[in-house]
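Hey all, quick one. A colleague (J.T.) asked me to put the adenosine-5'-triphosphate job into the tracker so the inputs and the C-alpha cells live in one place instead of scattered across chat threads. No bug as far as I know, just bookkeeping. Sequence used:
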Amino acid sequence: MFTAFLIKYAEIGVKGKNRYLFEEALVRQIKYALKRCEGEFKVTWRDGRIYVHALSEFDYEETVDNLKTVFGISSICPVVQTQDEGFEKLARDLVNYVDRHYEDKNLTFKVHTRRARKNYPMNSMEVNRELGGAVLDAFPQMSVDVHTPQVMLNVEIREKIYIYSTEIPGPGGMPVGSNGKAMLLLSGGIDSPVAGYMIARRGVKIDAVYFHAPPYTSDRARDKVIDLARRVSRYAGPVYLHVINFTDIQLYIYEKCPHEELTIIMRRYMMRIAERIAVENECLGLITGESIGQVASQTVQSLAVTNEVCSLPVFRPLIGFDKMEIVELSERIGTYETSILPYEDCCTIFVAEHPVTKPSLKIIRRHEQNLEEKINTLVQKALDTDEMIIVRWDRP
Ligand code: ATP
Ligand code: MG
C-alpha cells in the first residue's frame, strides 16, 4: 500500500551554503543502499525534501532495513501518494488511509498539513480543520488531541499529495562522503569496527588497514577482519582494506627490545605504517578503537607514547566509553558476533606477561634505536606487501 518514502534529515538541514553538497551526498548514499534492494526505485530531491518512489513491486522490510543504514537520515516515513483531484477526493483518501492503517479506531489524532504549493485553494489551517472533520465523521470513536495525539496524520500538498503517519528512526549522523576520508586501523576485535562506524556516521569515508602476522595469525583471522570490514561497509560504503604483513617487524622488535615494551613499540610501528598508507590514499586522519584504560597499551601514558609518532590527527571515538557500551553498540550495528570469533589477532601472540603501563617516551625512543639497522628496510618491505581488497556489503 505504500509506494514511496519521505526521507527526513535533521542535521544536514542546517548547513547553510554547504547544504547542497550534503543533500547530494545523501541522495547518492540512498541510491547506493537501494541497489541492494529488490525492485526499482526513483529518488527525487527538491525543495529540501527527498522522496524514494518505488517504480515496481518491492520488499517493504528489506527497503526500510537498507534505508536504516544510510547516515544522514533522521527518519523514514512510508507515504501514500495520491493525485490532487480536489478536496473531496483528498478527504476520502485520508479516511481510507486511516481505515487501512489503524484497525482499532480508539485513537486520538491530529491532522498536520504542509502546503508547498501555495496556489492550493485552501490554507493549511482550513485543510487541517476540514480533514479532521472528515475523519471524525467517518470514525466517531476517534477524537482530536492537538497537543499529544497518538496518531499524527501528516498531509503534504505538493504536485502530488502525500499522506503519512509513521516515522521510522534512521541512523542519524551525516551522509558518508560529505566529510573527507580517514584510515581505520581495523583489527579483529570488538572495538575498531565500532570506531569505524562512529566516524563514518559523521560523514567520513573509511579506508582500512589490517596488520597480520602469518604464520602466527591464520587465514581465518584475516577472513574475520575482511568480514568485519564488510559489516562496516554496510553503513560506510565500499571499504578499501589494506592487508599488511607485519611478521618480520614484530619478530625484529621481539628480538631487539625488552619484551614488556613490545606491544607499545609495535603499536607505534602500526601507527607509522598506517599513516604512510593514509597519506598515499588521501586520508586526512587515522581511526583507532582505543579507549582509556582498557588494556596496558591504552593507559593515558601509553596513548601519549603511541600518538607521538603520528602527525595526522588520530580519531578515537571510543575513548570515553566503557566496554559494555562498546559491546552494546557492536551488537546493534551487527559486528559483535564476528568480533568474538576466537581467532588470534597479531597483538596477542607476542604479548608479554607484564607489559609496561606507564611507558616513558624517552626510554621507548632509546630502545627503538636498537632497531636502527634494519627497521626502515622492514617497514618498506611491509608496505610492499600491501594487498588491497575492496570490500562491499553486497559482495562478500
Ligand atoms: P580492538 O577490539 O579494536 O581489537 P583492542 O581492545 O584489542 O581493540 P588493542 O589491541 O590495544 O585494543 O588495539 C588498539 C587499536 O589498535 C585497535 O582498536 C585497532 O584500531 C588498532 N589495532 C590493533 N591491532 C591491530 C591490527 N592487527 N591491525 C590493525 N589495527 C590494529
Ligand atoms: Mg584487538
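Adding what we noticed when we looked at it: Residues 262-280 form the longest helix (19 residues). The chain has two domains: 4-169, 181-391.
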